[in-house]
Amino acid sequence: MDESKQKERDRENKKREREREEKQHGRRDDNDEKNPRMIPIRKENNLTREDAELKDEEEQRRLGEEIQKRRRRAQELLEYFMRKNEEAKLAMNCGYGVEELEINDFPQNARWRLTRKETLAPISEWTGAAISTRGQYFAPGRIPGPGERKLYLFIEGPNEQSVKRAKSELKRVLEDIMKQALQNESHSGRYQVL
Q: Disordered: where is this region (predicted)?
């Protein structure tokens, strides 16, 4: 019995809420008798047609200004990134240098000496270029697969001149190593030819 009383109270509360909403929104639709749901009608805040047009024009002007502001900001960002891109290109073209020196086919002793820190560090300090070992060793007759490279020294520096100095110094060191190797081979035999 309590449940039925509760349901009846709920119905009455809903009915009162509907009546309150009807009073707030003004009038009901003619079909209210058939359809108990209320259709709210909004008031126009007592604006005349001219006031509404002025309000619309103002809103359009404000939106137009906002769009223009965003376009200007987008243009500024585009110009900024284009300027930075040009600066990066200039730095790459006129200031930055890169060279490679392949050492894969030289004897093991020469490769070992050229890739040691004790050999590369003084050259890097003197020329200002960074030297790193890249690729991998391929035995004679073995062909590198796709994406593979033979052992080489990668030289990069702040300008072309420092890179060229580093490469020429590496070549000089390589020649010295090869001369020493040839001298050691000629003296390494047990007998000498007279």
A: 1-61
Beta-bridge partner residues of 97: 157
Q: Say if residue 155 is exposed, middle or buried (CB neighbours under 10 Å; 0-12, 13-18, 19+).
A: buried
Give whole-number Cα distances, 159 to 77, 89, 194, in Å: 30, 14, 52
Please report where in the chains the tokens 């047009």 appear, as a residue: 53
Q: CA torsion, points 38, 43, 49, 50, in degrees to nearest 10?
A: -160
> Tell me, what's the pLDDT at 192?
47
Instruction: Give the whole-angstrom CA distance, residue 114 versus residue 173.
Output: 8
DSSP 56-68: HHHHHHHHHHHHH
Backbone torsions φ then ψ of 130, nearest 5 degrees: -95, 135
Coil, strand or helix at 166: helix
User: Per-residue pLDDT tens for 127-170?
Assistant: 999 999 999 999 988 888 888 999 999 999 988 889 999 999 99
Q: Can you tell me the mean pLDDT for 34-52?
A: 56
User: DSSP alpha helices (H): ranges in 32-159?
Assistant: 49-90, 108-115, 117-127
